[in-house]
Automatic annotation (TrEMBL):
This is RING-type domain-containing protein. One of its GO terms (cellular component) is late endosome. CDD domains: RING-H2. PROSITE patterns: CHCR, ZF_RING_2. It comes from Trichuris suis.
Amino acid sequence: MVLQWSPDLYRISALLIEVIKRLQKGQLATPLQRDLLSVLAQLYTHEQRFEPAVDIYLKLNDRSIFALIERFKLFHLVKDRIHQLIAVDADLAIRLLLENEDSLSPSTVMKQLIRLPKLQLAYLERLFARGQGEEFGDVAVLLYAEHNRPRLLQFLQDREHYTLDKALEVCRQQHFTPETVFLLGKSGNRREALKVIITEMQDILRAIDFCVDRDDFDLWLDLIEYSAMHTDFLIILMQCVGMHVDPKLIVDRIPIDTKIPHLKEALLKLLLDHCIKINIEKNCRKITLSDCHRLLTEYMERCKSRTVVTGGDDCMVCQENLVNPYFHQSRELVVFNCHHVFHLKCLREQRCPTCSS
């Protein structure tokens, strides 16, 4: 009745006393006691006695408390009871914290959640999504490393506000190889990153992709030198890098008197890919030269064509007639190769104002 009827239909104070008496008698079945407490909280709310109402809702773990806080702006009553709010509903609690960051700073929230690292991480993710929380970048790296490893690499790639050295130390301690490779590459230590890929990850294809993306001659040399000592790497390398590396760099480093399975096929693939690359480059050069010649010819022809200035043409700077039959003093005109015409006195520079704007 209390939960459904308007408070104008009954005496709140009298009903409040009766409910308290029933609760004080004790020996109530748990469901009945819970119902009575819910009624009591509602009656306190009707009387705008919000503190006891909040206490009851928290005791009951009732999600209605969030609607109550939002409706009557009661965040000040619960800002020191974040743990209890989270116990009721973590998602709603985090949303409430974000909506009231003016009353409770993110640093204070993080301190209150110090023993709940997963919730700290959930809170930070919401904070980052709002474009805030840059000062918690290093904390986020630690939390991801300990509680959500699959999201760590994406975080490192998407965010800039963390200390590279600290993040690298965390990843090395945890033996997170892909993250370590990314951080080494980001810090400019590309050769060490490549070394980690080929020695720890033993992933030649990833090493090739790494070198292709960076297009660094020294990286290619390191990869070739290492592969020359490992025939299984060498064969894959020869099959994949013909479009990126001069075959001579690889062939010169193939160990003499070493039996390498499938060497002939790999060498043919290497040379064929390199020939294709050379042909592509030649054709691209031909096309580029042809386009340049065509455009230059068009430009020269345009420069040779005449420009007719009539009395109806206006200067594009002063908007006056270029040739005024009523103005007997001669006016000097400037005609550019683009066929735009101006009064000499209107020009401030040697280039066409229309084409250079």
